[in-house]
Design brief:
Layout (H helix, E strand, L loop, with lengths): L1 E7 L20 H14 L8 E9 L7 H14 L1 E12 L6 H9 L4 E7 L3 H7 L5 H13 L5 E7 L6 H13 L4 E6 L7 H7 L8 H17 L2 E5 L2 E4 L5 H7 L5 E3 L4 E3 L3 E5 L3 H9 L5 E5 L2 H12 L6 E2 H8 L1 H13 L4 E3 L3 E4 L7 H8 L2
Parallel strand pairs: 1-2, 1-9, 2-3, 3-4, 4-5, 5-6
Antiparallel strand pairs: 6-8, 7-8, 10-11, 11-12, 13-15, 14-15
Helix pairs in contact: 1-2, 1-10, 6-8, 12-13
């Protein structure tokens, strides 16, 4: 399975919590689009297969691009790669960027999955997060997208926010359910270094995160969605059965992918490389045909650790036959012994090992304990 990710590093303004690479200056937007096209040409042979099964536009805010800029990138993708007939093509968008013309364009380009950065349906919460849209924008973006035939849709919600009571969180989930959306990505608010949120908390202008609220919201999230027939196939991701994000499953199943654009990562099972997290450096290097990425060769232990870390976050788990084939019998014996000693943490059959659902919230901690 071949997956392509395109990073669009532009936002109207920075949300308080965001630590993704992006800029609010649009002065280099057309140059970045040109550079992305050049990089697609240069990386045409990175993936073993030239047939794309998934394409994902993320950021930043891809929906900031003009119709012409989006079309130009799509034309280059189709020129360089073969896009499979059933390719999942996801486009991230902010609610306030959604309109009839843009949705018509998305359809004409073959985009068949939208991911709307809603975060909350509550105006007070949206203001706290410094989002650019209102609750009305959020609702209208969902309704308009469905009107244009985008049935395969994801929305993002954030929980654990100071001021987000249990009752408001329940209202958020009820609102999500009312739209019959097949996929939800729900994330706990985290305080990342160098974000506005971190500065505000350190200056005591914003309350710290309450861990008890985070756990309460997370537990209710799982209970509510399970009762309504959504599958928690990854810690933060829920879908109706059979409508998981194919692109994100590619990451969690530890399969290769190509990332294009400033700060984008690529992975081919044995090495990882990442582009400059600087628009200036990225553009200069592309234009001068210089290296614009750093690369890390992964040892066998590194590859094993990555497989364990990603797999344990999901309902797919890790597989004994894959471990033996990719890493050898010594690694399989190590895993089997670890699972026997820590059997209460796992659900295991002859091949697949998953975390006990009550331990999934601690997946990263358990996985790191299993590292070689």
């Amino acid at each position: 399975m071949s997956a392509l990710y395109i990073h669009i590093p532009f936002c109207k303004h920075k949300c308080h919590y965001c630590n993704f690479f992006s800029t609010v200056s649009f002065k280099n937007k057309s140059l970045i689009v040109d550079a992305i096209i050049t990089e697609i040409e240069q990386k045409r042979n990175y993936l073993d297969s030239n047939i794309l099964q998934t394409i994902y536009f993320g950021g930043g805010t891809p929906s900031i691009l003009s119709e012409n800029e989006i079309s130009v990138i799509f034309n280059k993708i189709h020129e360089i790669f073969t896009v499979s007939n059933d390719c999942e093509i996801t486009f991230e968008a902010n609610p306030d960027d959604i309109n009839h013309n843009k949705l018509k364009l998305f359809k004409s380009l073959g985009i068949n999955r939208l991911s709307l950065g809603i975060q909350s349906f509550n105006d007070n919460i949206l203001q706290q997060l410094n989002r650019s849209h209102t609750s009305s924008d959020a609702i209208n973006s969902v309704l308009l997208s469905k009107e244009h035939g985008f049935d395969n849709m994801n929305i993002d919600l954030i929980y654990g926010i100071p001021g987000l009571s249990d009752d408001i969180w329940k209202e958020e989930l009820e609102k999500f359910l009312s739209f019959d959306i097949p996929h939800l990505s729900a994330y706990a608010l985290t305080v990342e270094p160098k974000t506005a949120l971190n500065v505000l908390i350190n200056k005591k202008k914003y309350p710290p995160i309450n861990e008890d609220s985070v756990i309460s919201h997370f537990n209710y999230l799982i209970e509510f969605l399970t009762l309504n027939n959504y599958n928690q196939y990854e810690i933060s991701n829920f879908s109706k059965y059979g409508i998981e994000s194919k692109h994100n499953c590619n990451y969690w199943k530890n399969l290769p992918y190509l990332g294009i654009g400033p700060s984008a990562n690529s992975y081919n099972l044995v090495s990882r490389q990442w582009n400059h997290s600087s628009i200036t450096k990225y553009l200069e290097s592309i234009n001068k045909s210089e290296e614009y990425e750093e690369k890390e060769i992964l040892s066998l232990d590194d590859q094993f650790n990555e497989y364990i870390m990603l797999g344990l976050r999901t309902s797919f788990g890790i597989e004994r036959d894959i471990i033996e084939k990719r890493f050898g019998i010594e690694y399989l014996e190590y895993v089997n012994n670890y699972v026997i000693v820590n059997n209460t943490k796992f659900i295991s059959d002859l091949n697949i090992i998953t975390l006990n659902p009550k331990n999934r919230m601690f997946a990263d901690r358990i996985a790191s304990d299993m590292f070689k």
